[in-house]
């Protein structure tokens, strides 16, 4: 078993810890509560995975359906969703298509999120797992039709609104199963370099950079995890954030070609990057708690640098502003 001191060194030194090297070194030590969930652990459960048309989203959906869940694939393009559905069906023998419904919604457009949530809640009586995976890294600043900066809309506003609109459905899942329903937010290790910018959520000041906007909104996701964990705890819904490490996905290879060229030989597979999200969906409640930030089935610090630590007042301003933006 990998010692905790070595695990911490791997985590802090990034390249070994975030790459497939860290995954392969840690995996033999996953036992007890951190062991692989048993086959059928999610039988009879329902999950919704956003950004499920490829990459980590498709890998998460594959892992959840292998554990017995019915997994709704939420995508912007139905054609892309059906293609992912076909690949998962080919990868999991004996799986029926009705275990992988395709749902269409643009998470950046809040009116579309509201319409989708209404449809989904009418279609699905109870939801056990909601995975917020959809993401993007734009080269230039742009806004949605509703005037929100795109990364903020897709990474923060859309997930917040969808979670709140499906709170009753998630609570019904907890009541049906007798355990907690789970909201899982795919953040990024890049958030460690950024503080919470509660004063400029829309990135209207300074020189815009896609990588910085991505990391800033990933920091916001971690703060949002704590806020939603407190909000949803009375309804037996737990909330978890994680970073997947460095995985080879179309998003990485397309948006960060230089990073892919340099680190490509040690990037994780999508399944390795998806591992902790799948484990969080099925692990014992006592092992996962709520409101934590995870990597490789282990809770991690939300901050490494003192300059990134937000104050309670900043968290409250952030809560109030995202609440205002999502109505």
UniProtKB/TrEMBL annotation:
Task: Return the InterPro entries for the record.
Answer: NAD(P)-bd_dom_sf, SDR_fam, SDR_member_12
Q: Where is this region: Disordered?
A: 307-327
Its domain of life? Bacteria
* One Pfam family here: adh_short
Gene3D superfamilies, alphabetized: NAD(P)-binding Rossmann-like Domain (3.40.50.720)
Q: Which residues form a coiled coil?
A: none
Q: What is this protein called?
A: SDR family NAD(P)-dependent oxidoreductase
Q: Which organism is it from?
A: Pseudonocardia tropica
**According to the entry, what is the taxonomic lineage of the organism?**
Bacteria, Bacillati, Actinomycetota, Actinomycetes, Pseudonocardiales
